[in-house]
Design brief:
Layout: E1 3-4, E2 8-11, E3 18-21, E4 24-25, E5 29-31, H1 34-40, E6 45-51, E7 55-59, E8 63-66, E9 71-75, E10 82-87, E11 92-96, E12 110-112, H2 138-146
Parallel strand pairs: 5-12
Antiparallel strand pairs: 1-4, 2-3, 3-7, 5-6, 6-11, 8-9, 9-10, 10-11
């Protein structure tokens, strides 16, 4: 598997745990297996590998739970953000793409764990687009912006700074 010289940063929603990597693997993917679904609380997990020798935890440390005898999952104990999947004793860590500061740097190339893929996934793009935008709900958007506790998508000196 090819290593790509691309520097990334990322972290959890509250900012207590941050990381950086100077390389990513060319393996960005979504996994539909039931274990990944449960780990991220969604229909699939979106992951991209970072070589362990290039991955640095720059603020805090993730909590780790062994989801099997072969794999462990990392997350922020403070806010619960899923951060990674790693084979125990492996050489790379599968970072959750959504935890990257710029998720567009790792668009998924393949799907795995197809035994857990739900049939309704085929029709998601055909669903009507009736979602709301901030422009359609200015009062609510302003209230959320004024009380936002989410860490920004970049490193800060103080992790409590919003």
């Amino acid at each position: 598997m090819e290593r790509l010289d691309i520097a990334v940063t990322g972290g959890c929603q509250c900012g207590a745990v941050r990381y950086s990597s100077s390389q990513l693997m060319d393996n960005s993917h979504i996994c539909h297996c039931r274990m990944c679904q449960k780990a991220v609380g969604n229909f699939f997990a979106a992951l991209v590998g970072a070589p362990n020798d290039r991955l640095v935890w720059t603020r805090g440390e993730p909590s780790v739970w062994a989801s099997s005898d072969l794999a462990e999952r990392g997350f922020c104990a403070r806010c619960g953000t899923p951060l990674f999947y790693r084979s125990i004793g492996g050489t790379r860590t599968g970072l959750t793409i959504g935890s990257l500061d710029d998720p567009t740097l790792a668009p998924p190339h393949i799907q795995v764990g197809m035994e857990g893929r739900y049939a309704f996934m085929d029709g998601l793009l055909a669903l009507p687009d009736e979602g709301t935008t901030e422009a359609e709900m200015p009062r609510e958007a302003a209230q959320i912006a004024a009380s936002n506790h989410q860490h920004p998508d970049h490193d800060t000196q103080d992790w409590r700074v919003r």
